[in-house]
User: Fold Methyltransferase from Streptomyces dysideae.
Amino acid sequence: MTDADFLTDTRVFYDAIAEDYAELFRDVVAATPVDRGLLRAFAELVGEGGAVADLGCGPGRVTGYLASLGLSAFGVDLSESMLAIARRENPGLRFERGSMLDLDLPDGGLAGVVSWYSTIHTPVDRLPSLFTELGRVLAPGGHLLVAFQVGEEPRRHDRPFGHPVALDFQRRRPDHIAGLLTDAGFDVRSRTVREAEEAFGEPVPQAFLIARKAG
Assistant:
């Protein structure tokens, strides 16, 4: 599968389900104290006013929360439908269309990067180049927060909310992702795994890694 193939599949999927997805996960950050605490810790590591990209921002809920914590946060996503919701709900923030694999951002310009469940559609063989790209846009000493589902086998979502689309959601092992981050020049500073939240239909535990770019 080429980059164009999986990026197109991801964009088409989220364009189709954007409004339903945004409604389903409207309160997810507010309702998960562990996740919220990790975002606050990340914001403190970055520092007041630090420039942060929320990559794969979807409807912009995490972007908005990061901004409320004092960060200069903006969002990037493949899906124009998701971006439309993000702009509608966060009128004071910036949202741009783009791919995490090829960001239209200068080298070393960011104090932080968040990938909140947005690496889960990237094929495993593309992850090294993805993490290299995230390192490129971070300043030395900048921080990265990566969230993902824990496991080995992907979960296929077919016709979600009745829409005629399908997409695989990849699950990863924290040690594997930590190793890839180390290879890409990051120092992994924190590993957190919490159990699944049944209220949100999570079938597996969730992992959160915070890493620091060397320098």
